[in-house]
Amino acid sequence: MAAFSRSVTVDWSGSIMEGKGIAKASTGAFSLPVTFPSRVGEPAGTTSPEELMAASHASCFAMALNGTLGRKGGSASRTLVTATITADKGEAGITLTTSKLHVVAEGVQG
Description:
Shape: elongated
Strand content: 35-45%
Number of domains: 2
CATH superfamily of the largest domain: K homology (KH) domain
Largest sheet: 3 strands, antiparallel
Structural class: alpha+beta
CATH architecture of the largest domain: 2-Layer Sandwich
Helix content: 25-40%
CATH topology of the largest domain: GMP Synthetase, Chain A, domain 3
């Protein structure tokens, strides 16, 4: 497979605490509001880098699992993957501590 790339641009205005941004996918697939308070507190309808990483981890794993099943002659009728990213906010900043997957594969055959 040839190399490929994807990008997201965040347009941020204001300070870290009062500011806000919009994360836009170059593909046009999404345009999501981001704020620092939603990152470390209540989401209030906005997303965070950690939530976007969880989305990436869950979707990548679901595709990899189903790709592997297919290459081995099998399939799943449905795959549900939930990724939970945990972070710690300390004096040095925010540190990701875990990325945990919960996977349910239904109707696995082959």
